[in-house]
Structures
1.
Amino acid sequence: MKIIVCIKQVPNTTEIKIDPVTNTLKRDGVPSIINPDDKSAIEAALSLKEKCGATVTVLTMGPMQAEKALREALAMGADEAFLLTDRAFAGSDTLATSTIIAAAIKKLGADLVFCGRQAIDGDTAQVGPQIAEHLDIPQITYAAAIDYDCERDVLRVKRQFEDRYQVLEVKGKCLVTVLSSMTKPRYMNVWDIVEQDEKEISFITFADLELNREDIGLNGSPTKVKSTATKQFDKTIETVELDPESAAQTIVDALKARHLI
Amino acid sequence: MANFKHTLFEQMIKDFAETEVKPLAQEVDEQEVFPAETVEKMAKSGIMGIIVPKQYGGAGGDYNMYIYAVEELSKHCATTGVILSAHTSLCQAPILEYGTEEQKQKYLPDLASGKKIGAFGLTEPNAGTDASNQQTVAVEKEDHYLLNGSKIFITNAGYASTYIIIAVTGKGPKGPEMSAFIVESAFEGFTIGKKEKKMGIRGSSTCELIFENVKVPKENLLGKRGDGFKIAMKTLDGGRIGIAAQALGIAEGALDTTVAYVKSRKQFGKPISAFQNTQFVLADLSTKIAAARLLVYAAVAAKQNKEPTLSVKAAQAKLFAAETAMEVTTKAVQLHGGYGYTREYPVERMMRDAKITEIYEGTSEVQRMVISAALLKK
């Protein structure tokens, strides 16, 4: 069984800086991590590998420095890693990105594709489902638990809704998007940390894939970002000194006035 | 070849120490519990076999990674730091250095996977700094050595299954002839004696070892007969870098805690970090830590490059890092004031933990003897 895990390297900060001219993310000088949902997707794939045997391939699209995220996945126990990188890919929105990643998955071949639900820097939750559409395979989103029945060759996924769970079984190829709350990802281990240095990261460029230029990069991105802004919170602190009873009443009144209770 | 291993290793160890080690440090100290579950987690992540080559089940990492691990673990819990240091420097390292192929294949895989823990026994009631005054004897018989005697203050004792033991095997030209042995806890006649109650590193298990007619198979002689003292001294050269890293970690942990505290603690209407006394003390402590760090990693380089200056560099690193740890933790308590003296804050524990680094694996006085002996020999 071959599992491809799609991951994204994201800035490790809630203070994401945005280039005011291009309205895209400024990555320079911000420490990067593997997107938390994606890290759980890696863990899900590695657990499945331990249980039933599989090869785990990690795939990411991004600039050259995204190599570190792939190497971290190798150090957790993934078998091989591919970096999709090309100037032609720059400026891709979720549609163009999923077009490129789907083309790469088609080339590499996979029985299962695991993605994180969404990335903390964009929060769209679109790329996973779009990849499944491009590949024309079933998708299960918001996985809170994944199990594999090795005997029956069936993937069982517990899907999380706001108020309930749905348990689905699927046979054959499919794509799953994983929640970071699913599991605590394992630490990198020293054996694989040492070994990953002996492994090569394979690069996939535009020339390696069957893609049309008009479908990718800025040209292939129907999403146009008009403006991006950080939400401003107006904090006003009012200090009143009251006895406990009237203090409680004051708090209740204030919460009611804001329709919070 | 790519070169990401140090970056990834540092990220992993920091994450591990903060998530798994820090939350337990206070309990490990107060309850005097050996953090067995943490050691299991370390084993699972390969931390118990960093320097052991792949063919013996280890990770095949370098000495730098191992020392960095001791430093980071000790930032939060010096007990956890010394468990790794004794296991790696005092048990795995001498087997790697002096063991036969059969000994390596027999003992290293379980030590590297962390299935078994390692320890080292040299010190005796009458052989501390005067380590050559050994009373434990191993008499050569037909197919074994008969081991009798006792060792004290043995780190990891009770939890370890594999011990490197130094014993007298005869008379040499300049005094007793000593040899080193690999002794398994399961050997008949080997028992664990008194458990010490200590000032610091209270979760670390420190006990007496008792040998009563223990038959040690001849194939468990480590190195050549008569090489025991040399093996012990060379092993301690490596061990001292581990203790220096432990001391460095304790000092760094105390400084980090103190920097956070002085920014939040207010007196006379402002944070105490606004006072120049605080600022100057912090600046001095930070500078000494930086110097200690350079000495520790210079010793690591000497070890990795097999430089003849290793003994002196390891002694200098341990001497300076241990005294730095003592000074930093004492001043950290002072900057915390009354709160620093309570067990609500970790600095009093760090101060108690720091003291041992000036004592074990050679006191600071022994380090001065090593350093000056090399100077005066020239």
Note: The beta strands of chain B are 118-121, 137-140, 144-155, 162-172, 175-184, 190-195, 206-217, 221-222, 266-267, 270-271.
2.
Amino acid sequence: MHALKIQNIEKIYGKVKVLKGIDLEIQPGQFLILVGPSGCGKSTLLNMIAGLEPVSKGNIFIGDRDVTHLDPKDRDIAMVFQSYALYPNMTVRQNIEFGLTIRKTEKSEQKKIVEKVSKLLQIEPLLDRKPKQLSGGQRQRVAMGRALARDPSIFLFDEPLSNLDAKLRVEMRGEIKELHQREGTTIVYVTHDQIEAMTLGDVIAVMKDGEIQQFGPPQDIYDNPRNQFIASFMGSPSMNFIPCQAEKVNGVIQISLESGNEKVKVPIKQNIKGLEAYADKSIILGIRPEQITQQGEDKPDSAKLNCDVELIEPTGPDTLVTVRINGVKTVCRIHPTAESKVDKLMPLLLDMSKVVFFDPDTQERVY
Amino acid sequence: MNIKRVLIYSILGFAALIYLLPLVVMVITSLKDLDEIRSGTLLSMPQALNFDSWDKAWGAACTGVSCEGLKGYFWNSVLIVVPAVIISTVIGALNGYVLTKWKFRGSTLFFGMLLIGTMIPFQVVLLPMARMLGFLGLAGTTSGLIMVHIIYGLAFTTLFFRNYYISIPSELVNAARIDGAGFWMIFHRIILPLSIPIIVVSVIWQFTQIWNDFLFGVVYSSGDSQPITVALNNLVNTSTGVKEYNVDMAAAIIAALPTLFVYIVAGKYFVKGLTAGAVKG
């Protein structure tokens, strides 16, 4: 049984189609991430699930109820907003109780719920404070507490971490995930941050221009992006796109890579049927930074290339080295102990076992 | 304190003195008797504190044919101002709430039309309004005058509240909607508690406007229902032999006291409201 089912949802403002037919389905207890660049319609979609925006076309089901035209209050949802939206004139306790009071929950029951929620989120000492007197992280907790108190069938999160500083964001991210694991809640979570998407989600829907580009588990989206947009959006630093010439030699497709004054031909051992069509044509090689490393032990499906180093950025656990391959800047993730110098050649190892290819015109993946 | 400071303060002090001078003249003149006024200069001090002219202005001065002072008209004004201020502020708040948080098709146009309402001079609406009051059977009544003030003030109060509410994040309203609150509940529990500063602004503005209004008062009220501004005019223009400057002055001060009072009492909150600013939770 699905927890949330979205059928062919459209949103039209005047003549502009903001959402162009979205289909989604998640199971109870799943953590769904809607991720995409700003303006992709992810927040609009969330607001439509919440009932804050009218639906132009299509249907939304929560459980087996059609909620497409129901009021937000009748949908059995709770939402955590980007600005937290705590009622400034009420104390933390009143904020948490507000929804319960409106739903005429008994006083004794309310007290129990507030106790439970505030213990869970460690906000007990804050219960009598006003939102003004709280720090960003505390407000975030209270906002989650308010949502949890209602015990809805679906939680909606609208970029809840984007107002926090970097350190707190990582902390709260962990707490949200922990909470999800412990309580088994169903969550729909909007973010523009691909790291949040990767770390939190059970399933991710990558959106662009009002359409879902790809829907699946985080690792699958990371390893098997359907097109160049998804490949570049997920992962940081993002995937390198190297245009290269393909040719067929002895029945095997080879691509040419060139850097410094060296040129190598690399046979593609992966079984990609679509590659045949690109013999003697150009194709885009997609290779992630961590797939280009310093040379060391030989890997079965790999290529060696001496590359001109243009930029070195140490990050601590590893060093990002920018080289130029086939004329484009290419970022490689190198072990910090590996020696590299700007303007010097560096021998690099390209792991070809997980590289992907894209069509240069359509930017679609070649399978 | 250096010389620049001294200069600045003396200029400010001088400006304040000039500004206060009319009030000072009014107060000391109202405390003199007619002989003193005739013999002394404008700025000479009264010989004794003499409140006779205040008594007369309040209870016995002639305004036209009747000679019962301003007393009755003062309460007329209170009776007009209090409901008019309350009702126009409440409706203004509701308008602002709807125009920012419950937008409807054409709400921007609606607000634009209301804005024009703030630019319409009194004189333009005099005749149509008189027709309407006559049509409603409210001509010459206090309720008619109250209605005129409410309608005329709505454009202003709506503008105040709309501009204030636009800075209250809509996410607050959305959160309350998801919590299960409806239109009135959100207004009452979330929006109104945040509105104190703008309510004060609206009340001060409306109180001053309506209390000080002369034109609507003189046109739409008659006889015993006239507001104090009209009565003051009648009092000053009614002369039986000598011109009693002391009574005129006292009457003028009495007519101006309530607005002064409102500024002194609410002015603190007024400034607070302007500076408190951030309502974002």
Note: The interface with chain B takes residues 47, 50-52, 71-73, 77-79, 81-89, 98-99, 102-103, 131-132, 139, 146, 150 of chain A (CB under 8 Å).
